[in-house]
Design a protein that fits this description.
The protein has helices spanning about 30-45, 75-85, and strands at about 50-55, 60-65, 65-70. Helix content is about 35%, strand content about 15%.
Amino acid sequence: MSRPNVKTPRPAGTDTGRMDLTSDAIVTSVTNVGKRFATLRACAALLGATLHRLEDGRYLLARWGLSRELDTLDDAAALLDRMGGGR
């Protein structure tokens, strides 16, 4: 039986409080896009709007029975900012 991959602890006083990421596979651009989408979706909800991801990769922002298709999350953030709630 092989020993599991365990990190050795750092000496006392050297911990910076940051995660030690040893693999680039842990953090990917897909995760960042997903997090940004979730944040913008929450901002839209606070304004009474909905933000949906379409199958073709674009986005749909809707409020008060009106909707707009957007090409990128940057476009969605800009529109939410004009509506008063973008980040």
